[in-house]
Write a structure and sequence with these properties.
The protein contains 8 helices and 9 strands. The chain has about 220 residues and is of the alpha+beta class. The protein folds into 2 domains: about 140 residues, no CATH class; about 70 residues, no CATH class. Strand 8 and strand 9 form a beta hairpin.
């Protein structure tokens, strides 16, 4: 299906953070933030299906790998603008066999406390790690501490996935650039984001692999 410029999504104060199971690079995981940037920072830009499709094509390899992307908005108030975005995403998916109709959903966001969202939004913008920039749409990596601690938590749970440790190490490399991080520090991050306490053994395993990779460089 070709993108239609006549169908647009209006976003106000618009940031959508998308944690999924892939990352911009060799890792299969990413936390991504979609931000509408046309006009004023907090204006009412139009995000057309054409622009959305361009963004999706840019990260198609990641989306194909996971097939399911959870998003969370800046607040828990998913207004008409965000509902329109989801409908546009469904329309885009209808023209791409790799994407399920529900590839974009807010399952993750529903479990993040409202008080956390605003700070996480600002941290991610300040981090300024762009994955995609079309001029009308920017895709940011979400704050590394949030992405990292979420991976460690899942790696220490029964829901762990084989690539979680590699993803956690990739985030750590982005964030620390060879420096170490303590267990107490990531416990603090978990508390900041109101997430469960990470498993110490899982954290130590991640740090062990991180150290091995640093030595191999």
């Amino acid at each position: 299906m070709g993108a239609s410029a006549s169908k647009s999504v209006h976003l106000r104060d618009s940031v959508i953070v998308v944690p999924n199971d892939t990352s911009p690079g060799s890792s299969r995981a990413a936390s991504l933030m979609f931000s509408s940037v046309e006009g004023d920072d907090f204006g009412t830009p139009q995000l057309t299906e054409e622009v959305l499709r361009a963004g999706l094509n840019s990260i198609a390899e990641m989306l194909i790998a996971t097939s399911d992307v959870d998003f969370f908005y800046r607040t828990h108030n998913l207004d008409t603008d965000v509902e329109n975005l989801v409908r546009a995403a469904e329309s885009v998916a209808s023209g791409a066999k790799e994407f399920d109709e529900q590839w974009l959903n807010n399952h993750t966001g529903a479990f993040i406390e409202a008080s956390v969202l605003k700070g996480l939004y600002r941290q991610s913008i300040q981090q300024n790690r762009l994955v995609f920039d079309s001029g009308s749409l920017k895709v940011y990596a979400a704050a590394w501490p949030f992405a990292f601690v979420q991976k460690v938590i899942r790696y220490g749970s029964e829901q762990r996935r084989p690539y979680d440790i590699d993803d956690a190490v990739a985030y750590l490399n982005e964030m620390m650039e060879g420096a170490a991080v303590s267990y107490e520090t990531i416990v603090g991050w978990a508390e900041e984001y109101k997430l469960p306490q990470p498993n110490r053994a899982a954290f130590e395993e991640v740090m062990g692999k991180y150290s091995e990779e640093l030595k191999a460089e």
